[in-house]
Amino acid sequence: MTLTLTHYLLASTVLFGVGIYGAFSRRNAIGLLLAIELIMLAVALNFTAASNFLGTAGGQVFAVFVITVAAAEAAVGLALIIAIYRNQKDVDLDKLTLLKW
Amino acid sequence: MLEHAWIIPALPIAAAALVGLLGRRINRFAGWITSAAIAGSLLLALRLMWDVLAHPGVKEITLPWLQTAGGLMIQMGMLIDPLSSVMLVIVTFVSLMVQVYSLGYMAEDEGIGRYFAFLSLFTFSMLGLVLSNNLIFLYMFWELVGLSSYLLIGFWYKKPEAANAAKKAFVVTRFGDMGFLIGILVVGYFLNTFNILALGDAVKAGKLAGGLATAVALLLFCGAMGKSGQFPLHIWLPDAMEGPTPVSALIHAATMVAAGVFMVARLFPLFAASETAMLTVSYIGGFTAIFAATIACVQDDIKRILAYSTLSQLGYMVMALGCGGYTAGMFHLTTHAAFKALLFLAAGSVIHAVHTNDIWKMGGLCRSMGITTAVMLIASLALAGVFPFAGFFSKDEVLVSTFLAGRMDLLFVGLLTALLTSFYIFRMFFVVFAGKPATDKHAHEASWVMTIPMLLLSILAAGLGAATAPFGHFLQASFGAPAMETEYHGRLIPALATLMAVLGFAWAYLVYLQKAVSASLLMRRFLPIYTLLKNKYYIDEMYQWAVQRIMFVVSRALAWFDRNIVDGAVNGVAWLCRLTGDGLSRLQQGRLQTYLIMFVAGVVIIIMVVLASNPTVLAWMK
After folding, report:
1. A101 with B596: Cβ contact below 8 A
2. Which of A20, A23, A100 sits opposite B588 (nearest CB)?
3. Is B418 exposed, middle or buried (CB count within 10 Å of its CB: 0-12, 13-18, 19+)?
4. B591 touches chain A (CB under 8 A)
5. How many percent of chain B have pLDDT more than 90?
6. pLDDT by residue (tens digit) across B444-466?
């Protein structure tokens, strides 16, 4: 059995689904951040698979971009979480409901 | 001289500004400054009339003022013809007499500077009105006249009656002015000009005819009804007696009420274009004449008697104009200006001496006030229309104009009014000047500043009749077509008019001097009529009723509608917005993951919609 594009896409979809589920359900802010990383990686995987399938390099370049953005986003997200933790002594998303009406 | 005619109104307004702005510091000289200005105007007006007499005809001096996009040009200008030159002389002369008289009459009033400033403003407004060559300026000065009369009637503004009378005068004339303004705009719209001469030409060319002509004439006449106190807008004039007496003289003789008659005369071609309008005008005039004369017969206040007399005489003028008696109306305006101003000034002199307006508290004044009695007698004879005083000639012309127009009913009304006029004026004269003094207070003759104007006016009231024929010929140049009253040379109408005057005199003589017939007996015998007249036909009460029962009810309903429906709609919209906002703001829970779910759900929905509307995808799905 050889790996076809479909396999890659399936793996990517599973990865995306896990990420979405994590993002929806994790109570911990760091867990949310990790889930978002998973979604980003699913996207990056999609790009590389498509690039391989089409035989062009564009997708791989974009995958590198996505990884870069993910790294930056993780840095900013962690900084925010630390700031929130210092302020609230907590990173439980259910309790961080200050930004409401 | 013609180019400099603008100086005639400019002098009084300059004096008014000077006196008004310098205020109390020059109170002592205020009257002299304004009187000097008016005297200058009078001299110029006389000079102007001399020029117009030498070169009769119509002259117009214009400057462009406003140019509208539609090609409508409004000019600023003066129309100088026999009509305006005569009016200029009347206005400046009466104003001067009143100003000089006021120097004595108002000497002890602290607001004297304000008084003379207003008086000059009044004169200026009227002079401007007389000189206007287009309807827009005519209307502007028309309103200025209304404003100045408001200021002067309410001069003693601390008296509630005076303040109310001023408001009444302003509001009532406003009703007429509204019609006047609409009339002006309609004329401007249909004939595309506001220039009076151009309007006359357009009417002669037949551009205004039928129902439109009638509507325009009646709308314009509304203004005259308000200003000249024609029924049913007459109610402000008797109340205007709350102002100082010289002001009454000015209002009744030269400035305010003359404006309406002058306007009809000035726009005569517009009126003449419609038979119906002329009929209406003449009947309103005739009705006002007899209506006001009957009321005057039972009034106790000396100034109110004269006020109703003015209404009645204005009715005569309007009646004459409505019958086509253009020069008759204007001539009666002229003589009336002289003898009515004189009547008021003499009445003022009496009031000044006895400090009351009630004729029953006067009496026997002929012994202490010789000059006043003499001039009052002259003025009364002129008003009653006794030969050879001025009123005889002008009243005769008015009656002849109704006769020549073939309106026998109006002629009859005119004659009956003449009888009543003679009765009420001699009733007043006998009660005030003859008999025994009603009080012990010793009345004394007024000072020379008050008597000299009266004497000058009495010369005119006595002798103006000599000018009848020249006056008629002179004025015709303003109007073009020959006036018809010159065609009548009969003796019957003058004889009848004189008979009426004599009958009225005899009636008053028997009742109030000889006391052959008891006044109180007459009163009791005709009590219902007496009560009706005493209460001025309850016209004021009718207005009161109409305002309270009709206007206020409608207003209240409208106020309710405004408050509950209009405001309710506005408030309802605001309430709805707030409610929606309140509800929607509940979505902002502050839960990050709820936002995320909504965001993802939104993206999914959008993607599905986009895909579902894509034909390729649709085909694939099938």
Report:
1. no
2. A100
3. buried
4. yes
5. 8
6. 777 787 888 888 888 888 877 77
Query: What distance in Å separates the CA atoms of residue B294 and residue B532, rounded to the nearest whole number?
Result: 10
Which one, of B261, B356, B343, B268, lies nearest residue B305 by Cα?
Answer: B343
DSSP string, B439-486: SSS---PPPHHHHHHHHHHHHHHHHGGGGHHHHHHHHHHHH-SPPGGG
* pLDDT reported for residue B483: 47
Task: Find the closest chain A residue to B589 by CA distance.
Answer: A100
Q: Do B597 and A24 touch (CB under 8 A)?
A: yes
CB B433 within 8 A of CB B373: yes
Predicted confidence at residue A19, as pLDDT, reads 93
Selecting from B585, B589, B597 the residue whose C-beta is nearest the C-beta of A97 gives B589
Cβ contacts of B547-554, under 8 Å, gap ≥ 24? none
pLDDT value of position B351: 84
Q: What angle do CA A59, A62, A64 make, to 5 degrees?
A: 115
pLDDT for position B485:
45
Residues in chain B, overall count = 622
Q: Residue A80 is which amino acid?
A: L
pLDDT value at position A38? 93
Q: What is the mean pLDDT of residues B193-200?
A: 83
ipTM of the complex: 0.85
Q: Please say if the pLDDT value at position B118 is more than 70.
A: yes
Tell me what the mean pLDDT of segment B35-62 comes to: 86
Give A-chain residues touching B593 at CB under 8 angstroms: 23-25, 32, 93
Considering Cα of B428, then B430, then B432, then B436, what sign does the dihedral take? Answer: negative
Please give the share of chain B, as a percent, with pLDDT higher than 70. Answer: 96
- B-contacting residues of A 27-56, CB under 8 Å? 32
Do B590 and A96 make contact, defined as CB atoms within 8 angstroms? yes
Mean pLDDT of B563-572: 92
Q: Which residue of B has its CA nearest to A98?
A: B590
Cα separation, B397 vs B394, in Å, equals 5
CA distance A42 to chain B (A): 16
Over residues B544-572, mean pLDDT: 89
b vs e for B316-349, b when ≥16 Cβ sit within 10 Å of the residue's Cβ? bbbbbbbbbbbbbbbbbbbbbbbbbbbbbbbbbb
Nearest CA in chain A to B595: A24
**Is the separation of the CB atoms in B379 and B348 below 8 Å?**
no
The Cα B214–Cα B219 span in angstroms is 8
- Strands B59-67 and B73-80, bridge-based pairing: antiparallel
DSSP labels, B293-356: HHHHTT--BHHHHHHHHHHHHHHHHHHHHHTT-HHHHHHHHHHHHHHHHHHHHHHHHHHHHHS-
Per-residue pLDDT for B231 more than 90?
no
Average pLDDT, chain B: 84
Mean pLDDT of the B116-143 span: 90
